[in-house]
Amino acid sequence: MTHYLRLSIVPAYLFLCLILGGASAAGYWANMVLQLLALPLIAWAVIVRRGTPMPPAARQLVVGLFLLLLLIVAQLIPLPPSVWTSLPGREPVVEGYRLLGLPLPWRPISLAPYATLASGLWLLPAVAALLGIIRVGAFRTAWMAWVVALVATVSVMIGALQIVGGNDSPWYFYSNTNRGSTTGFFANANHMATLLVAAIPFLASLYLGGRGRGKSSRRSSGMFVILAGALAVILVGVIINGSLAGIGLAIPTAFASFLMIWSRKRKLPRWAWAGVALMLAGAAVLIYNVPFSSNNLTGEGRGASDSRFYSFSLSSEAAADQFPVGSGLGTFARIFQMYEDPTNVDLYYMNHVHGDYLEVALETGAPGVLLILLFLLWWARRAVDIWRGDEPDYYARAATIASAAILVHSVVDYPLRTVAIGALFAVCCALMAEPRARERSRRKQNEDDGPRHLSA
Questions:
Q1: Is residue 213 part of a domain?
Q2: pTM of the full structure
Q3: What is the pLDDT of residue 131?
Q4: What does residue 79 show for φ and ψ, rounded to 5 degrees?
Q5: 15, 49, 30, 17: which is closest to 150 by C-alpha?
Q6: Helix (H, G, I), strand (E, B) or coil at 309
């Protein structure tokens, strides 16, 4: 019993993250609870002693986390006036002290240290999920896949209730949300679409995992019906959600998931991934050039003060002015207001760039960009190894597809700024860091610890 309780810790925590952590600019109390719950799991991961050596890919992830922590700490260290005043983009701050007649104090790199600290705490759930897998081993891969599939399916049902209830539907869980659209457990409809797309490969992995355990044909057929029904619900959910990125990414994601099933007994042809790449490129063309009503990257939408084109333009200028040190993690909203045209300001404000990579470049400068490049290199190498492996790991392959969809969506949105998608992405990275080998060794150890019988 204790063994199963241990294995349920990370899946249960992922479930809480997916249903409570669906907002970036709202839901502070729910996110605070998730951060507090993350602390004991992180502490456990720090003090626990693994029964098996940590694989190189997992060690590299831990090193990356350590470098990210160093970056955040470095942005909070107070610097003398002679140092911080020489950094790019600090002229308005110096001018402010001069106008007030105040002496220049010691200040850190971050222009808003408390916002940087708060943004650092926002990462705790993702770190807890990651370390809970690669350090503690408190997980079972199939259970986490079921959690993703279950929450995605229920989100579609809640979204249907939201549409039926109209803008005043009680099924919207956040006051600041996309009313009139399906948001499920999220505040932003685009982030719900991210979850739905990421759930597709995990449905395929559950089907393949169920077939590979020597189950009866009747049971396998029953699982196929359940998973096919869930897939149909999720695809319908993507359509009624209306997110351009969700619709565009669902096509290559579904095709890659089909390739995962198709390659169960045969080797993938060379054209397979070229087909995925072409579909992905087609999705990008669709998002950027088709003049749908919700697309503010084309036509008249480019001139709107709340459009992505407007955000990208001003944020690129701000990132260049703050380079190479950045303005500090969590400072985007304050910096962006300095570049806005006062005649376009209204009751609403831009809380994120709607492009995670550009926002990281603005807030963390060259060190943050370097960390992203190192991670993408790690991800690419792991993805190649996972798909070329002699013994297929279906859950790890599903993690590569789901994490790829999240990475691509982050180009035009900020799904990783929500605790829900951040934790899901961390789980995907952990599954890519050879977790199945550890799970098999743990299962073998449990079998070795069992009773032995002597027969003559």
A1: yes
A2: 0.89
A3: 95
A4: -120, 150
A5: 15
A6: helix
What DSSP line would sit under 98-145, residue for residue?
HHHT-----B-SSSSHHHHHHHHHHTHHHHHHHHIIIII----HHHHH
Give the tokens for residue 160.
């249907």
Instruction: Decide: 194 and 415 in contact? Cβ < 8 Å.
Output: yes
Domain count, the chain: 1
Residues 6+ apart with CB under 8 A from 202: 145, 148, 149, 395, 398, 402
Cα–Cα distance for residue pair 191/419, rounded to 1 Å: 11
Placement of tokens 């490049």 in the chain: 373
| DSSP states along 137-171 | ----HHHHHHHHHHHHHHHHHHHHHHHHH-TT-TT
* C-alpha pair distances (Å), 183 with each of 23, 104, 111, 211, 292: 10, 47, 33, 33, 19
Please name the residues in contact with 301: beta carbons below 8 A apart, sequence gap of 6 or more.
295, 307, 309
- Evaluate whether 224 touches 274 at the Cβ level (below 8 Å): no
pLDDT for position 451: 40
User: Quick check: is 455 in a domain?
Assistant: no
What pLDDT score was predicted for residue 268? 67
* Single-letter amino acid code for the residue at 171: W
Amino acid at 59: R
3-state secondary structure (DSSP) of residue 213: coil
Asked if the structure places residue 154 within a domain, the reply is yes
The interaxial angle of helices 356-388 and 56-76, nearest 10 deg, is 170
What are the residues whose beta carbons fall under 8 Å from the beta carbon of 127, sequence distance 6 or more? 38, 42, 65, 426
Pairwise CA distance, residues 371 & 234, whole Å: 34
**SS3 state of residue 216:** coil
Alpha carbons 201 and 398: distance in angstroms, whole number: 5
Residue that has been written with the tokens 């207001």 in this structure: 337
Q: Other C-beta atoms within 10 Å of 262: how many? A: 12
Distance (Å, whole) CA 60 – CA 73: 20
Distances from the Cα of 10 to the Cα of 143, 188, 236, 368, 418, angstroms: 9, 25, 29, 28, 18
Residue 426, classified by CB atoms within 10 Å of its CB into exposed (0-12), middle (13-18) or buried (19+), is buried
**Do the beta carbons of residue 199 and residue 152 sit within 8 Å?**
yes
The Cβ of residue 380 has, within 10 Å, a number of other Cβ atoms equal to 12
CA distance 429 to 425: 6
Q: Which of 106, 110, 111 shows the shortest CA–CA distance to 79?
A: 106
Q: What is the pLDDT of residues 351-403, one digit of tens each?
A: 788 889 999 999 999 999 999 999 999 999 999 889 887 778 899 999 999 99
The answer to the question of residue 446 being in a domain is no
Of 80-84, 216-220, 318-322, 423-427, the range with the lowest mean pLDDT is 216-220
Alpha-helical (H) ranges within 242-352 are 244-262, 271-289, 308-322, 332-339
Boundaries of domain holding 66 = 2-441
